Here is the input.
Amino acid sequence: MRNAIAILCFHLAAPAAWRANWAWGLPLIVLTVVLHVLGLGFINKKVAGVFGHMTERRYPMLVFAVVMGATTLLATILHATEAGIWAAAYQFTGALPDFKMAMLYSLNAITTYGHESLLLENRWQLMGAIEALNGCLLFGLSTAFLFGVIHKIWLLGGVSKIDQ
Here is the structure.
């Protein structure tokens, strides 16, 4: 109950600009996480198809390297697409003047790199922090997924053949 009261007080005391940041940020988090999970599911199906016959492959180390490289590339494309969705939101809201700057800012925020000196319009600055939160979730999902792919190969016996 105390948590509900604290959330309600935060919401009522939050400046109007913060409400707009949350109103944009939360649906973007949900959208990008759902997109990410669906994308990882698609990648997983393709990886499972290739590694389903891992023990029959002649050069399992080469297959492992190519498939892991392709998996990593596809996961990176997913992250770039999600950063692009945030960039489009920044441009649509007028937080940044053009898509190039919005994409650069978004990649900085979603990776929590934050090195570039780009700043959002004052009323949209909380949205950058919300995107960084989203990035933590997305990169956590990708890390767990890549670990799972490697673990799956291990269980299929691919790693023992790779060692040979």
About this structure: Residues 17-163 form one domain. The chain has a mean pLDDT of 86. The helical segments are 2-13, 16-51, 60-93, 99-110, 125-155, 158-163. Residues 1 and 50 are 51 Å apart (CA to CA).
